[in-house]
Amino acid sequence: MSNSQKISRRKFLKVAGTAAAGATLAGPLGQAAANSTSSGFGVPNLIRQHSVRIAVGGWAEQNMRDLLERTDFSGQTGINVEIVLRTDTKETELTRIVGAVQADTSPYDVLDFEDELATSLSAAGYMLGLDDILPADLWDDFSPAMVDYTKVWSTHNDETFRVIHNWEMPYWWYRKDWFDEKGVAVPTTWEEVAALGEVFTNEDEGVWATEDGLIKGAFLNVYLAWITLQAGGNPFDVGDEYRQALQYIYDLMYTHKTLNPASLQKDYNQQNGDYIADKVAFMRQWPFFGDVARSDDNKAWFSEDKVAVALPPLGPGGIGGATYAAGWGFGIIKTSPNLAEAKELLSFLVSTEAAVEAVKVGFWFLNARKSVLAAVDQDNWLVKNLQMYTDAGAIGVRPYHPQFVEALTILEDTAAAYLTKQSSLDDALRQAKEQLDSLA
Amino acid sequence: MADVMARSSASVVKRRSRLGIPSRFAMRRYVLFTLLVTPAFLLRLVTAAYPIIQTIRYSFTNFSLLKGTNEYVGLQNYVDITQNYGVKGALSFTILYVLASTVIELGVGLLIAQLLNANFRGRTFARTINLIPWAIPTIVAGYSFRWLLDDQFGLIPVWYQDLMGKNLIIFIDPILSRWAVILVHVWKDAPFMAVVFLAGMQGVPLDLYEAAKVDGASSWQRFRHITLPLIKPLVITMALFRIVWSLAGFDLVFGLTAGGPGVATSVLALQVFREGILFFKFGFASAISVILLLLVAFVGIVALVLFRRADVSY
Amino acid sequence: MLKTPSRKYRRSILFDLNKIVVYVSFIIFCIFVLLPIYWTLRSSLANVSDLHKTPLIYFPEVTFQNFQTLLDQVPFLDYTRNSIVFALGTTVLTLVVSFLAAYAFARIQFPGSGVLLWILVLSMALPEVGTIVPLYRLLSKANLLDSIRGLVLVLSSVLTPFTVWVLVSFIKQIPYEIEEAAIIDGASLPTILVRILLPITTPGLVTMGLINFINAWNNLLYPLSFSVTPSSKTLSVSITEVFAGYSPWGKPWELIMAVGITMMVPIIALILVSQRAIVRGLTGGAIK
Asked: Which of A120, A203, A217 sits opposite B258 (nearest CB)?
């Protein structure tokens, strides 16, 4: 949809909304008119009592609109849904929400949110418990790994506060063309990964066997958790597994020259850019890289064997901790001004019918629900990879801490100090331990 | 301080009584003054005084949303600050960052102002482009420089590689990262300083320079003995505002390094953001804010003293 | 008699040396200022894949694709309109409030006015981020959330101290005799302010107006915190909303640069228009 259409559509909806609002006041006939304007932007406050606000990221806005239109939610329920944009990071989004809830109000009723926000908002008591409104058989539709995940990441004080619709894991991407050319096998263990530094890394050319996006602000934590899980532990325990993981990352950077140390100051965009610029032989990355690699911008570069996916090389923890999934899901903010409507919208969004329709609209709604997996195109690259990882049992539960955001910051600060040679491993671990203990 | 204030207002009174409104209108004058400053103070009262008072109050509590606590704990937060890894790191870099960037900005700003004040072809062009760095949103500048300094596709490291034949990874080196943050700050704000100084320089009477030229003073001597003393109050003012602004801001660091590597480039305002907004520890975050307040107050007092001196010598 | 030509010769060398110094510094200055701008511009105008190539492509093929994407991703027209209203409103409110206060500080004898001015300046000390929660409560009570009026109110307050400070020194510098004559003629205060002082202080007001406009235009924290719908979000907020690859994980650098360039262009135009007034304005103010 081109922009001019989009804007004129918005304008149209605005006009329609105003007209509908006027009609609402005029009589029952207007009610029907108001109901028929689904997902309007800028609908005036006059008809707010029949409306609900849902906040999604810009990347999901069109999908959400399509879903609501396809299912005619507003027509069925008489509730007008206003889709507003939330921001792209937990930092900016918390900035917006904290002030609001503290003032006993809320910018949105239903929120689409990630793990970092989930722990913060639920622990602060900002999220509504959902168990009353969720159908009892909902969890039967979830894969066992998703149920385990939900118990850890979407439950607070035994109450579910979020139902995920997006559940995805970092995949292990590699340049099949390079591996074939060099005649080396895909690594299956940590040791084999380390040895690949010698094969691929050419510092003067800026080529590294692997690279990651490890800048502070939850990027580094993803990798720390991923590697520690592979070592068989939870980084927030600051146990032997975490020590081993840190040591391993350090060795990858400086001893084996496998992992580009500059990763420490890169975000995912830079990481993807480097991979597509032929600077990286393999990497851990979230599935959105598949979209980026297949986009029009990279048409000239793309070929399937440049973005091959394999199971992650295993550490001491074995296959069960090869990778972990993170989720995005819907929840209701407790201070929402439209609780009843919010509940109705959320019940609808998490229903099996909506979940199946949703994944047809876009992969933002892809997860391992049985109904969803049965409904999607089995030949799609992402579905195949999800299936491969699920079948291999490679998806562990994301390492959790009840004060996740603060705890991950402590790990990032101390780990980055060690990985940039500002402190010793012992100091870094001691610091991390002390500070994590003081959280309790 | 009271003494300084007294002297300050005394001299003002003296200066004004010469020109000022006759004193039999004193009552009317006070009413007028109050009327005129009320809108400004009302604005500040609502949006600054109230938050400041609340922040000071919170700083003595363990107010935390995640723990659900909100009790008076005395100075506990201030004790904790001395133990906190992130805050300790941020404190030392904040001081270095604010001082170094201010001093360099003053110097670079003066140099640019000298250039913009010189007579040459392209001066209008120079004056126009001068304000561009300042006009770019800070967070955009932060991201832009992160890429300009990127080890793979950043201009500076690529040039370094061409010249030295070595790979330059700026952001994993704490010292280089610190300088990167400071210098980007200089790039962003020195031009603004320069405009202010330029204005000051243009206020210097030309005959002073002519006289100095006749006496055979070199351009450095003219700068040192005429320009500099005359714009000294301006330099102090700008230094003061600069310091206050940089103490309170964190968006450059946020966009450029996110405080890394480790906590090498973290600043106190970023810590306030983290502890308050991200960790919901309003009590602790407020204590850091109070430290910032005290730093600013200290700077303010020093500036005030300098002002009095500058005024006297002027 | 013989010496004269050689002295002249030496002087012309010196003269040239000066010129050389000036031009060399001019070139250094241009590189200093423009290199990062070139970098930003290059990234916003290039196809993203051209940005990730070595050796670097210094002048990639120009495309407006990033701007097109930006238009598709955010309600650009709404945001632009809000940015203009927000920045203009803030500028006007700040100037009016500050002008009145500055006149009082500069001209009216009042015990402790020096201390008051100092308090005004030091009230800037609390970091903006520390004010979010209390301000949210205030705006919520006043029903000013998600509205540009609320944003204008908050930011005007932030910008007032510096504006007052500069205008005070500006007004102080204007000879008092003009007003005195008017007072003797029986002119009222509003007349003095509007008819006499306003024209003289116009350069100062234009300068502070521009500075405040830019500050408001670029402000991110307040619109981010207090705006929810496109009815009050500004252009700067779009920095936190652009996305890559239909997912939350990417931070599309080229789009952020496009936002930056989009926001810079009007500002540069403004600077060009008010160039002369700025220098004159600051010349009048602050120095004495």
From this structure: A217
